[in-house]
Design goal:
Structural class: mainly alpha
Strand order of the largest sheet: 1-2
CATH topology of the largest domain: Growth Hormone, Chain: A
Number of helices: 17
Helix content: over 70%
Length: 492
């Protein structure tokens, strides 16, 4: 049974309960911000990094993909560690590992060792993120009352989005004036701030006594990696190559075996049976579909500005502000709409509609290479993609009883990040297929290949919009009581 985190009823001299709640929220927001900051900072530095180290497009894509893949694969391991060592102990270990690996990325050697070293450190960053990210939502959910939770989760996501917004500018300034190596240690001060705030909050928790297993983590990590890498290899081998269907078949079989192993375990690594709760399953599936497009447009939109439009790093960072600023606006707007309407249909459907239209407008504007024509699509897509996730996060936690929320957070984060990895791998495969060999060797995504990635993002958003329209409840569901006996939840 996962432990519960809470603030003591009579807070010690560290501060009042409301103030300590804000410490918790800010600490978890900083943790989420680390992950979001890394994505946008690295996106701006990809081009200069590839030229400096002689990386191919294949390796350049993997610099982003291996991080997201490690995050999604190790999120269940983070949940297992939290059950054994406590939520906050796991949280601290994750942040420290993330910070150390971030600093090491900036020390990547030149030559043949560059790609293996950089990919290894990026994978370790993902492991650190996987240890801490499932903890954040669980701690916030346990500390805040239900009537405060929607706004608190929106503020948490919004704080993360603020770092996401700062990433392009911070990365651009550092890359232009100090070089690409300086962007990786940028998150270390944020990690230190998160550790200090968590200590100041004085959150109490009861440590669980969950067993540590090896077979399940290995099976899950191997199967998730096999699926994502098989998708990516499709772009290298081509659909006509016999290795493509063979790799996809093996990956699918490995995933099925891993799922069966987890389901049959007496102490499962992640509680897949929570997917029998319909509201939770629907919200998780939509979160999966929404995560991929955001990573696709961020990575390939940045590369388009740098490589196709030949903008310098600082100008590229500034050019991305309409997108990341709109994402932050949409995130904060989601919480207000959810609290006002008491139904996730409003922020989710409104957001997905705006995101689908905005991404289509942005895609249509790419061939002109005129920046001003891209801005309306950036803004509309950013606001739209920022709105669904906070509302879906609140629905995910509302749909399960309190004693299942830690497991629910782990499964939700696993599938959310897996959605990002799958979307990025699929877009990367299609871009590699459309790119010419000379550009691949030089680490360049051509202007004709970039729209292929955007069309992939459009397809994910359209699928999410159609699914949300069909599956989300028209009326706000009844509340779930803490024991899980409410009408919206039946124990599997």
């Amino acid at each position: 049974m996962p432990e519960a985190a809470h603030l003591p009823a009579s807070p010690p001299s560290g501060g009042s309960r409301p103030l300590r709640k804000r410490f918790v929220l800010t600490a978890m927001g900083c943790a989420g911000g680390l992950i979001m900051l890394d994505q946008t900072v690295v996106a701006v530095a990809l081009g200069p990094m590839a030229r400096s180290l002689g990386l191919t497009t294949w390796v350049m894509h993997r610099v982003v993909l291996v991080y997201v893949l490690a995050l999604s694969a190790f999120a269940p391991v983070g949940g297992m560690a939290a059950r054994r060592f406590g939520l906050l102990g796991t949280f601290r270990c994750g942040i420290v590992l993330f910070a150390v690996a971030s600093g090491a990325c900036g020390l990547t050697p030149a030559g043949d060792a560059a790609a293996p070293f950089l990919l290894l450190m990026r994978a370790l960053q993902g492991v650190g993120a996987g240890l801490m990210i499932p903890v954040a939502t669980t701690v916030i959910t346990n500390v805040y009352e239900e009537h405060e939770r929607g706004r608190a989760l929106a503020v948490y996501a919004g704080l993360a989005q603020v770092f996401f917004s700062l990433g392009p500018v911070v990365g651009a300034v550092l890359t232009q004036y100090l070089g690409w190596r300086s962007v990786f240690p940028a998150g270390v001060p944020v990690a230190a701030a998160a550790l200090w705030l968590a200590a100041r909050a004085g959150v109490e928790e009861e440590r669980g006594r969950g067993a540590l297993t090896v077979v399940q983590p290995v099976a899950v990590i191997a199967s998730v990696g096999a699926v994502v890498l098989a998708l990516y290899q499709c772009g290298i081998w081509g659909l006509a190559d016999p290795r493509t269907p063979a790799a996809l078949t093996v990956a699918a079989a490995a995933l099925v075996l891993a799922v069966r192993l987890v389901l049959r375990s007496r102490e499962p690594l992640v509680n897949l049976r929570l997917l029998r709760i319909r509201p939770y399953a629907v919200a998780t599936a939509l979160t999966f579909l929404v995560q991929g497009p955001q990573l696709i447009v961020m990575v390939h939109g940045t590369l388009f500005l740098r490589q196709a439009m030949h903008l310098p790093p600082l100008t590229t960072g500034l050019a991305l502000l309409p997108l990341v600023g709109a994402l932050t606006t949409g995130t904060f707007l989601s919480g207000h709409l959810l609290d006002r309407h008491r139904s996730i249909r409003v922020p989710v459907l409104l957001g997905l509609t705006a995101a689908t239209l905005g991404a289509a407008l942005w895609t249509a504007a790419l061939p002109s290479r005129a920046y001003l024509w891209q801005v309306p699509g950036m803004v509309l897509a950013g606001i739209g993609m920022g709105m669904p996730v906070p509302a879906l996060s609140a629905e995910l936690m509302r749909a399960v009883p309190q004693h299942d929320r830690a497991d629910a957070s782990v499964l939700r984060q696993t599938l959310r990040q897996l959605g990002g990895a799958v979307g990025l791998a699929l877009a990367g495969a299609l871009v590699l297929a459309a790119n010419d060999d000379t550009a691949d060797a030089a680490g360049i995504v051509t202007a004709t290949a970039t729209p292929v990635a955007f069309v992939t993002a459009d397809a994910f958003l359209l699928a999410a919009l159609l699914s949300a329209t069909a599956l989300l409840p028209v009326r706000a569901p009844a509340k779930v009581d803490p024991a899980g006996r409410g009408p919206a939840h039946r124990r599997p």
